Amino acid sequence: MIIEWKFHARQRFWERIACLDIDKTEAELEIKKQLVRFVQPETNTIKTIFEIRGRILTVIKNETKSSIKVVSVWEASLEEVKIWTQKQGNACAAELQH
What we know:
CATH topology: YaeB-like fold
Number of domains: 1
Strand content: 35-45%
Shape: globular
CATH class: Alpha Beta
Number of helices: 3
Strand order of the largest sheet: 1-5-4-3-2
Largest sheet: 5 strands, mixed
């Protein structure tokens, strides 16, 4: 699946790379995994929350079967961090049951 970055998202991401030591390839891998994902019907986009090197980031994207277009990226808000933590806790609990 091809990942394209809109100008604004690419610009914001490069700003964050300098501060957070994050690699674009790592970010694209996490965006594809979509461990925490919410459809936003009002804007016809998908919000994905993911973690890289201890940093939790949020991406807004448009998605088709063949490509992902990253619209925006930012460091997760407190609410988004809570959602990420809850989802990861649930995933760990499910793994322990197996």
